[in-house]
Amino acid sequence: MAENGSNSGFVNTGDMNVGSGAFGAGAVYVNAPAAQRAEVPPKPGETDVGVITVLSEEARAIRDELGLDPGHTGSPGFELGCIAAGGRSFTVAAVRALDQGEGPAISAFHHLREHHKPRLVVLAGIAGGIPRRIHIGDVVISTRVIYYDLRKETPDGTVRRGQERQAPAWVGHAINRFFTDHGEPARFRGQRRSFQVLSGPIGSGNVVIADRDSEILQYLARYNDKILAVDMEAGGLSQACHDQPATTRHTQGWVIVRGISDDASQDKNDDHHHAAARHAAIVVGELLPYLLPGPV
Question: Which of 6, 5, 98, 114 is nearest to 52 (CA)?
Answer without folding.
Answer: 98
